[in-house]
Amino acid sequence: IGEMLYKDPDQHTFINFITKYLGQGWGYFAGWSYWISLVLLGMAELTAIAKYVQYFIPSAPSWLIQLLFLIILCGVNIVAVAVFGEVEFWFGMIKIVAILALIATAIFMVLTGFKTPVGHASLTNIFHGFKFFPMGVDHFFMAFQMVFFAYQAIEFVGITTSETKNPRKVLPKAIHAIPSRIMFFYVGALIAIMSIFPWRQLPADQSPFVMVFKLAGVNWAAALINFVVLTAAASSLNSMLYSSGRHLYQLARETPALDRFRLNRLSRTNVPQNAIFTSAGFMVLAAILSVIPWISDSFTVITSSSSGVYIAIYALTMLAHMRYRKSQDFMADGFLMPAYKVLNPLTIAFFGFIYLSLFLQESTFIGAVGSTLWILIMGTICQIVTQKNELR
After folding, report:
1. Which pLDDT score is estimated for 379?
2. Closest C-alpha among 20, 94, 38 to residue 280
3. Which of 184, 230, 173 is nearest to 56 (CA)?
């Protein structure tokens, strides 16, 4: 995505590259699928928000919590872009401070040989009892689908930098910084936790963040961490409302049949208000799912549905990139993805592996079937409609 945006920084969505290099039909499919995926991500965050709020207010019904948060963040999004940016800044700052505090606490404990209920804080705890696939190979592979879900929407990094004053300067720096950010904030936090507690003895029913801060003497650690993850989920929902609204607005501008719904209109504050409200309206389905008795884990159903559709979009993006490399548009002195002839097919195969793994667990099976039906039906409709339009 970064390579193609570097070549054409005027594009504000990578979906346009699918349209350009794979055809109008696949572009139309990817456009609507991407909007659906953003809505599903928003639904997943709404479901998580309800769980976190119920820690503080156990008697509060999840559907009511979800509606209230949706209304509040819709209000944030329709006022002005500046308000959205300010809220997102503080949401992000809370997450960063919490992780930095965790890592700093772990460093102090390791340096002082802090005594824990099972020993002492030490880097040797990471390697104690080391074994590949300690819970079995199947558990290892099943974990990939949830990790994949956690990294969905990472393409926002490339899309947002395309809107800066000098995207060709900012874009490579932003993308090159992603691995180091992952190493520090994700891997660094894991190393910090496992240094304090031998990983085999980490309690499965307790947040490791909560455990570390409790050991450090923060008795209200559980409330603190629940607040942090609540703001993280709210931040993600905020971004999904922002992105899904603007993506639907763009789709409406390209689809004359949607004129009657006025989704291609901007408010007085230059915000796609109608498109944001419509996206939020679909996210309300999360509240409905939470009260359906036979759906025991609505979060897993939503995440697996989102992952299935997202995989299709990412795979199409990889194919579009391969077509771009062979086209006259290719910018040989641009920001290049290395070894694309090998890495693109490997990445597509990896996506296929994750997609198949969604069918192997009972909790994700329903979502996998739903996403498959969407891909087959919507993909076919888009191709047929496109062919008819070309014949005209």
Report:
1. 94
2. 38
3. 230
